[in-house]
Every structure is written in C-alpha cells, then in structure tokens.
Amino acid sequence: MIKEFHTKSVEETEGVGRELAFTLNREKPCFIAMYGDLGVGKTAFVRGLASVLAPSAKVKSPTYTVVNKYEGDKIPLYHLDVYRINDEDELYSIGFDDYVSTGICVVEWSENIQESIPSDAVSVKIEKEGANFEMRKITVEVKE
Q1: pLDDT at 87 over 90
Q2: Which residues, 6+ apart, have CB-to-CB distance to 128 below 8 Å?
Q3: 123 contacts 4 by C-beta, under 8 angstroms
Q4: What total of structural domains would you count in the chain?
Q5: Does residue 64 surpass a pLDDT of 90?
Q6: What CATH number does residue 76 fall under?
Q7: What is the chain written as a DSSP string?
Q8: What does pLDDT average to over the chain?
C-alpha cells in the first residue's frame, strides 16, 4: 500500500510520522527506510514517530553519533543516520544486525545501504515540493 501526504509545516510532517506509528505493531521489530535530501524533514518525521513509540524521547539527529536509542513501551526505537557509512563492513560494525532484530529501526539515508534493507521494510520518501521551503511531499509504502 502506498500513501502520499502533502505537508506545509514541520508540525504536519511530524503528524505524518505519528500517523505511521499508530499503524505499526509496537511489540515486533520492523524497519523503516527513509529517503530524502538534506533538510527535507527526516528527523522531524522521526520525532512524530517517537512521540507515539517512545513518548519520553528527546529526538535529535544522529548525524554524528550514527545511532540514537529511545526506550519504547515494548521494544526500543533505534534512529540511525547512515550518511557517513561507506560499506557493509562499516554498517555491520555498528551493530546493525542487533538493531534490526530487536527493535523498531528507522534509518535516514537508506539509499546508502540498499543491499542491507529487509524486503518487508516500510519506505518513507520525503521531498521538497514547490517554491515554498516548508512544503513537503511524503510517500509512505508499506509492504503487505
């Protein structure tokens, strides 16, 4: 199933993340592959997800830490930024397998790890839309 959303603010982008969070099984690991250029709102989307999955989380971009872990009510939420990951060896050296198998794993810059994305991953693509810097087109694809 593919859904398309058009947002006009950071708060609306967070709202789309919240909406997706309510559709997930919060007791079972899952993978969310995020795609989009710098500054399109990937971390804002994750803030929306986390507000449901790990309500006490103070979400910030994991650009330099690579992985941020937030405690969920059933399983952890892992927020990864793989922008600086150069190959599979580097990816697996950060514990990638453990994150994927034990929690809800949200990965920014998934285009850098295409070969390692599970086949049942949820895909989220965020793009700037129009001349207005705040408008976004968000495409969410959930495999059934």
Answers
A1: no
A2: 37, 40, 135, 136, 137
A3: no
A4: 1
A5: no
A6: 3.40.50.300
A7: -EEEEEESSHHHHHHHHHHHHHHS-TTS-EEEEEE--TTSSHHHHHHHHHHHHSTT------TTTSEEEE--SSS-EEEEE-TT--SHHHHHHTTHHHHHHHSEEEEETGGGGGGGS-TT-EEEEEEE-SS-TT-EEEEEE---
A8: 92
pLDDT recorded at residue 65: 83
Sheet holding 67-70, edge to edge: 2-7, 136-141, 122-128, 30-35, 104-108, 77-81, 67-70
Max intra-chain CA distance, the chain = 41
* pTM (predicted TM-score): 0.93
Cβ-in-10-Å burial (0-12, 13-18, 19+) of 33 comes to buried
pLDDT in tens, 90-133: 999 999 999 999 999 999 999 999 999 999 999 999 999 877 77
Amino acid found at 135: M
Domain that holds residue 116: 2-141
